[in-house]
Amino acid sequence: MKRRFLCAAVSVVVLLLASNLYAEPKEYRVGAFFSVTGKFASLLGEPERNSVKMIEQQINDAGGINGHKLVLFVEDTQGDNTRAVNAVKKLVKKNKVCAIVGPSRSGSSMAALKEAQKAEIPMISCAASEKIVMPAAERKWIFKTPQKDSDAVRRIYDHMTKNGIKDIGIISGTTGFGNAGRNQLKLIAGEYGIKIVADETYGPSDTDMTAQLVKIRNAGAKAVVNWSIVPAQSIVPKNMRQLKMTIQLYQSHGFGNVKYAKAAGVAAEGIIFPAGRLLAVNTLSDDNPQKALLLDYKTKYEAKYNETASTFGGHAYDAIWLVINALKEVGDDPAKIRDHIEKARFVGTGGIFQFSAEDHNGLDKTAFEMITVKNGEFVVLED
Amino acid sequence: MDSGGGFTDLLQFIFMGLQRGSIYALVAMGFNIIYNATGIINFAQGEFVVLGGLMMVTLTMGFTFSIPFAFLITVLFVMAVGILMERFTINPVKNPTVLRLIIITIAVSIILEGSAMILWGKESHYMRHFSSDETFEILGATILPQTLWIIGILILIVIGFMLFFNFTMTGKCMRACAINRDAARLMGINDRKMVMLSFALSAGIGAVAGIIITPIIQMDFGRGTMLAIKGFGTAVVGGLGNSLGGLVAGILLGVIEALGAGYISSHYMDAIALLILLIVLFIRPSGIFGSSEASKLKEF
Fold first, then answer.
1. Among A157, A373, A176, residue whose Cα is nearest residue A283
2. Which residue on chain B is closest to A202 by alpha carbon?
3. Would an 8 Å CB–CB cutoff place A182 in contact with chain B?
4. Burial class of residue B169 (count of CB atoms within 10 Å of its CB; 0-12, 13-18, 19+)
C-alpha cells in the first residue's frame, strides 16, 4: 500500500516535471496603460485600448510570435498621473512585462517615464508632447509614436509661406494640448518670418469666442490658427462666420475628428489642418506607402468595434507593432527590445518611422498631410 | 474686412457676455431653488444640465422629434431624475445635516456623470440650432438666433418663477419653507414635499439650460463640473438663495468676462471672474443682493 502510494507520488512528480519541460514556449508579456475612462482623455484611451486588444487577438489567432503567446496586461490610468505611475510599477513588478505601451496623455507620460527608466523597461508613449523623448540621451528607455507638435506647426507655416501670409492671429484652448501648441507656434514663427499679431485663448467650457476673434480681426491678422483638442474648438469657425471674417482658418491636428467638422457645419468648409493620413485615407493616392496598412487597420477596427477609427488608436497600433516586431527579432529581453526599437525603420499609421539614438520619435514633418474640409468630409489638400 | 469700429466691437462683446451670462444665471437659479428649500448646495446641478443637453440631442437628432416636443419630454425626464434623486438619496436620510446632504449630492453627481458616460458614450454630441444658424446684424454687431433663444428663454423662466413664487399657493409654501422650515411645518405645509418639488424645479431649470446651450457648445458627459463651478460662483456673487441676485450676477459676470477678453486679454478671462468672486466675498460675504442678517441664520 505504502509502496503503491510512493509510486503514484513519484510518477505525479515526474509527470509534472515532464509537462513543464514540454510546456508551450513561455508567453511574451507586454504591458499597456491608457486613459480608458476618466473625464479628459477617455476619447484617446478607449480606441488605444481597443487597438492593442485587437492586435493581441490577431497575433494569437495566427499562432503567436515565433510560437510564443502574446499576453497583454492593460491598466487604466483614468488620465491621472499618480495612477499612471502606479500602473507602471504594477506592470513591471507584478505582471513582469518586457515592454510597456502607453500612456495616452503627455502629463501622465512625463510622470510615468521615471518609473520605466528606473525599471529599465522600454516604454512607448502614445502622447503628443515632444518633451517625453527629449533629450534622447536622458530618455534611454522612452519612445513615442505620435507626430510632433512642432512638425504640425511647420506644416502650417509652410502652407502660409507659400500663400504669402505673414501676419497671423492664434487662438488656443487652455488645456495641455493647447498650451503646448501655443508655445510651439510662438517659438517657430520667427524661423519663418511670421508675425503673431494677436494671441488669444479660451477655456474648454466656453460658449463663444467672438471677443477673441474681434481682437484678432482688429489686429490685422491675415490668417487664424486655432489650436485645441476640446469640442469647443468647433465654435471658432462658427463665430468667424458669424463675424463675417473671411481670412483663412488653420486648425491643429486636434481637429482630426470628423464630428468636430460636422458640428461646425458649413463654417468648417475650407478649414486647413495638418494630420496623420488615417483621416483621409480614402483620398490618398494609391502609391502612398502607408495606404494599404491604413486601410487594413481602418477596416478591421471599424468592423470589430463599430466606431470610426481614430488617429489615437493608430498611435497605439504603431506602438504595439514596434514591440511585436522587436519580440519577433530579439525575444523578450527588455534591453534587446530597446536596442531594436532604437534602430527600427517601420511603416506605421502615424508615418514612416526611422528611429535613431538621437530621435526616439522617428517621424519628421512629412508624417503630416495637409487636410481640408470639403462637403463635411476630410480630404487631402491638393496644392 | 474692416474692423467695425469701437462701438460695434463693444456691442459684439456685450452680446457674447449676455450669452455666457444667461447660462451662468440659469445654473445659479437651479442652485438657489434647492438652497432655499433645504439649505444645501446641490453639486449634481451641473449633471442636470448635461442630462438635459444629452437627452435633447437623442430626441432631436436620433428620434427626429420636433424641437418643442423634445424640449418638453427632456425637461420632464430630467425633472423625474431630480425627483428620484430626492426620494432615494435625500429624503431617506434620518439625520439630515447640511454636510451629510452635500456629500450625498456629490455622490449623486458622480453616479449621474458615470451613467451619462455609459448611456451616451464619451464623445461630444452636437445638435442643430433651434432656428437657422444664419447670423443677423444689429448696429453692425452680429448675433446668432440661438443667442436670442437663450436670452428669451431665460427671461420667460424668470417671469414664470416670479409668478410662481409670488402668486401661487405652492410657490408661497416653498418660500415659507425657505424662510423658516419649522414655522412652515407648524402652519401645515408639508416641507418634505416642498423639498422634492424644489429638486424637480431645479432639475427642470438645469435641463432647460442644457437644452438651449447644446446647439452652441455641444454636450458631453464631463461638462457638468465646469458648468456647476461657474454657476455656483454666480450664485455666491448674487447672494445664495437670491434668484434675482443670481440672474443679475450671471449677466454681470458674463459681460465682464467678455469685456475682459475683448479689451484686456482672453488669458485672464477666468481669472477676472474669480477676482470678482473674491472681491465680493471680501466686501459683502453674503453676496451683492444677499442680506447679511439672513445669512447669519443659515447653517451654511
1. A373
2. B266
3. no
4. exposed
- Is A167 within 8 Å of chain B by CB? no
- Measured N-to-C along each axis, helices B191-217 and B6-38 cross at an angle, to the nearest 10 degrees, of 150
Count of CA atoms in the C-beta half-sphere (13 A) of A282: 6
Specify whether the backbone of A176 is left (phi greater than 0), alpha (psi in -120 to 50) or beta: alpha
- Between chain A and chain B, the number of residue pairs with CB atoms below 8 A apart is 108
Which of B1, B8, B16, B151 is the best residue to mutate to test the A interface, defined by the most A CB atoms within 10 Å of its own CB?
B16
Contacts (Cβ under 8 Å, ≥6 apart) of A103: A33, A34, A35, A45, A77, A84, A87, A109, A112, A125, A126, A127
Q: Which domains does chain A have, with CATH numbers?
A: 28-147+291-364 (3.40.50.2300), 149-275 (3.40.50.2300)
Check if the beta carbon of residue A306 is closer than 8 Å to that of residue A299.
no
Pick from A43, A211, A232: CB nearest B13: A211
Any CB–CB contact under 8 A between A34 and chain B? Answer: no
| A232: closest chain B residue by CA | B217
CB contact under 8 A, A212 and B135: no
Distance of residue B259 Cα from the nearest chain A Cα, in angstroms: 8
Say what the pLDDT of residue B2 is: 44
Domain ranges of chain B: 10-223
**pLDDT tens-digit map of A29-45:** 999 999 888 766 677 88
pLDDT score of B141: 85
Identify the pLDDT of residue B264: 86
Residues 177-236 of chain B with CB under 8 A from chain A are: 213, 216-218, 220, 222-223, 225-227, 230
pLDDT above 90 (res A196): yes
Q: With an 8 Å Cβ cutoff, is A269 touching chain B?
A: no
Interface probe, candidates B144, B148, B218, B272, chain A, greatest A C-beta count within 10 A: B218
Q: Is A306 on the interface with B (CB under 8 A)?
A: no
Beta strand pairing call for A369-374 and A377-380: antiparallel
Q: Which amino acid is it at A251?
A: Q
Are the C-beta atoms of residues A91 and A76 closer than 8 Å to each other? no
- Over residues A286-314, the mean pLDDT reads 91
- On whether the pTM is more than 0.90, the answer is no
Phi, psi dihedrals of residue A239, rounded to the nearest 5°: -65, -35
| C-alpha to C-alpha distance for B92 and A280, rounded to whole angstroms | 55
Q: Which residue of A has its CA nearest to B220?
A: A231
Walk along chain B (300 residues) and give the pLDDT tens digit of each residue.
Answer: 444 578 888 999 999 999 989 999 999 999 988 888 888 889 999 999 999 999 999 999 888 889 999 999 999 999 999 999 999 998 898 887 888 988 999 999 999 999 998 899 877 888 888 888 778 888 888 888 888 999 999 999 989 988 998 899 998 888 888 778 888 889 888 888 888 999 999 999 999 999 999 988 888 888 888 888 889 989 988 888 888 888 999 999 999 999 988 888 888 887 888 888 888 888 887 777 776 666 665 655
pLDDT of residue B293: 63
Within the 153-182 window of chain B, which residues sit less than 8 Å (CB to CB) from chain A?
Answer: none
